[in-house]
Amino acid sequence: MYHRLIYVCFAALIFCSCQGNRQDGVSPEGDTLTLQYAQLITLIDYEGYSVASIRDPWNKGRTLHKYVLVPRQAALPESLPKGTLVRTPVSKVVIYTAVHSALVQELGALNQIAGVCDFQYIHLPYIIKGVEEGSILDCGDAMSPDIERIIDLEPDALMLSPFENSGGYGRAEELGVPLIECADYMETSALGRAEWMKFYGRLFGRAEVADQLFSEVSENYLALKAQASQAGNRPTVITDLKTGSVWYVPGGQSTQGKLWADANVAYPYADDSHSGSLALSFEAVFEKAGDADIWVMRYNRPQDMTYQGLVADYHGYAELKAFKSHQVYGCNTGHTAFYEETPFHPDRLLRDYIQISHPEIDLGGLTYFEKLKDE
């Protein structure tokens, strides 16, 4: 208990001293890093530090958070702009999401992860082994983390996802530890979200690795998009499943909606203006997309879904055209790394979508989805 109290006091002292180094404004000599697709983040390099500004996705014209990144071994500049000071590379991080854990692994910075939340959703062998051996701490549920464990770790940053009207981050805000708000999921294009890896690369001291990785991802994605555009047919698609009485479908301006467009698929909700999901009844979806040629779904179950299983869940599914023609593809997210990989590798997801909707294009087989089978 004494150790924890000392840590909290020390962290608070550092936090306050960082506040004292902040001043309004930034130097006009900064070099803005060109971001081709990301709309919610700006990265500017100055002499001795960098500034990352994150736009508020829910309040146009407002800033969600500003980070001032200063190399760990360098002396603090005499004046810094307002923002949360982060010494880079971060060396002991608690990550709240599986997707960012997977990216950190790909950046070659796994040894900088000290703790994780939502461990049950992580499939990365290194982290599973680390938690089992105690070198990485399981910090509980991301929505209600074990703050005592986080304090014991003495991290230098927490990576978490912001939500609209979330009410803040509870006791985590009192630790004096930088809270890295990972708003990448609010980007409205797949490559826009993936481009956030450039920011994360700078946090972990892997800027060059991140820049090269994004270059490869974007080149692959655009090449696949061009290939799909040559397909002679444009099948229609229906997505996902009912949850209770509601069927959530991606809005036309959502990342998923735009992925279908890039796969040269006629998405029934393409003209919709929402960037999030639409909450609809089965009847509304059936009326709009019941005649879709293909049905592509994600689910998390111990056993893979079958046609018989679908009907057992809800008899109305049997009336969908794709069900009748056996053109249903499922991704069991409990058995694949779909959620861990695809946000920063949309090229892999686009490849699956193209192969499903344009089987004449041979891209080497599906990664996440497979055609449903009869029992």
Structural class estimated from helices and strands = alpha/beta
- Determine the mean pLDDT: 90
**Inertia-based shape:** globular
How far from one another are the termini? 56 Å
The major pleated sheet works out as:
5 strands, mixed
Estimate the strand proportion: 15-25%
CATH architecture of the largest domain: 3-Layer(aba) Sandwich
Question: Would you give an account of this structure?
Answer:
It is built from 13 helices and 21 strands. It is an alpha/beta fold. The protein has two domains: 215 residues, Rossmann fold; 142 residues, Rossmann fold (3-Layer(aba) Sandwich), CATH 3.40.50.1980. A five-stranded mixed sheet has the order 2-3-4-5-7. It is globular. The N and C termini lie far apart (56 Å).
Helices and strands in order:
Layout: H1 2-20, E1 22-23, E2 31-32, E3 41-46, E4 49-55, E5 63-71, E6 80-81, E7 84-88, E8 93-95, H2 98-106, E9 113-116, H3 125-133, E10 137-138, E11 140-141, E12 144-145, H4 147-153, E13 157-160, E14 179-181, H5 190-194, H6 197-203, H7 207-229, E15 237-239, E16 242-243, E17 246-250, H8 255-262, E18 277-280, H9 282-289, E19 294-299, H10 307-313, H11 321-324, E20 328-332, H12 338-341, H13 346-357, E21 370-371
Parallel strand pairs: 1-6, 5-7, 8-9, 8-13, 9-10, 13-14, 15-19, 19-20
Antiparallel strand pairs: 2-3, 3-4, 4-5, 11-12, 16-17, 17-18, 20-21
Helix pairs in contact: 6-7, 7-13
